[in-house]
Amino acid sequence: MESVEQSTAEQPNNRTKGRWERLLEADRRLAKRVEAVEKSGTIRIAAAGVAVVGIFILGGTIWQILSDYEARSAERIERAWARLLLPAGGNIGKASGLQTLLDAGTPLDDVDLSCQAIGDFDDASKTCSNAPIFRGFTYVDAKRRGHNDRVTVGNLNLSDASMMEFTIRNVFMSDVRLDRAVWYDCLVEDSYINSGYAPERIENCALRNSVFYLDFDKTELGNVEVSGSIFTTFPAGEVARAWAWADNRPNISASGSGSETEISNLHRGVTLCRPLPAGTSLPEQDPRTHEKHAMPECEIMTWEQAKEAYPKGQKEDPIDAFDGT
Which residue in 39, 93, 100, 318 has its CB near the most CB atoms, within 10 A? Predict the structure, then answer.
């Protein structure tokens, strides 16, 4: 009786043992096949071929992406030129086209953006009836290198153009035509602008630490900060409403006329503010008038007082102003 019970108990164990042996045998056969595949020269060549094909496919994909990007970039540049040079005055998005070109590093030398070229110009009377408007653009050399390495543009014609809400920083502009142009709500900083003509009117702007070789004699200035800048000429007091910090006063360039008249105009036309206490922040807009770059509420100083209090607060050499030192 006991042998029958023992035989009955051993049967499930034998079946389980048989299953494990079959599984182990199958695993050994599979391992041998895997080893054979790994040692197979044909398989290795095929794998290498697949890898090479994959590399070619990846390279082709990258090339296609770059080609598509270049094509789209070229199309953007072409559309930007078309919008910029469209012969129509007013605010029709020319600044957007200009910004695209600036962002792409497209040279603007010898480009005519005057009213006569791209605005509504009356050839009979030689007057601009509807100026091209460039509203909202930024022209900046972000690398902030030495003054000889700044972004440069030459012989750019902006006669009669209306330029609004723009920033020019670390830029060297030579032989730029600005006659009868209007600047409004702008920042020109650490730059050099050389032109035989100055804008007709500049309002709500900051012209900081820059050199202006412009004929400013008849330019109307309204609420303009001129801290640290060098001018060759300056408008008479009746058309100049400008201000500067007393420790960073503007000056008349000795390489320009440097005459007593220009210096007198500068002193009459520019109100000096005593610097505010350290840590004092200025609002972006004047809370009274909502104008940008407005002279803050400050202690007014005479030029004599400013010279005595801040003897090193006025640049003598245009290069000093150009470097913002």
Answer: 318
Q: Which of 297, 240, 296 is nearest to 267 (CA)?
A: 240
Residue 34 DSSP label? H
Spatial separation of the C-alpha atoms in residues 248 and 300, rounded to whole Å? 14
Whole-Å CA distances, 264 to 96, 147, 267 = 41, 29, 5
pTM: 0.74
Contact 116, 159 (CB under 8 A): yes
How many whole angstroms separate alpha carbon 174 and alpha carbon 133?
22
d(CA 192, CA 122): 32
CB 95 within 8 A of CB 136: yes
The pair of three-digit structure tokens given for residue 188, joined into one six-digit string: 């020109």
Would you say how long the chain is, in residues?
325
Are 77 and 102 a contacting pair, CB within 8 Å? no
pLDDT by residue for the chain (325 residues), tens only, comes to 545 444 554 555 556 656 666 666 666 666 666 566 556 656 666 666 666 666 766 666 666 665 555 667 789 999 999 999 999 999 999 999 999 999 998 989 999 999 999 999 999 999 999 999 999 999 987 555 444 555 678 889 999 999 999 999 999 898 899 999 999 999 999 999 988 788 999 999 999 999 998 888 889 999 999 999 999 889 886 677 899 999 999 999 866 555 788 889 999 999 999 998 887 777 666 655 556 778 888 999 999 999 999 999 987 755 555 554 4
Give SS3 for 128: strand
Residue 7 is classified by DSSP as H
Q: How big, in percent rounded to 5, are the helix, strand and coil portions of the chain? A: 40, 25, 35
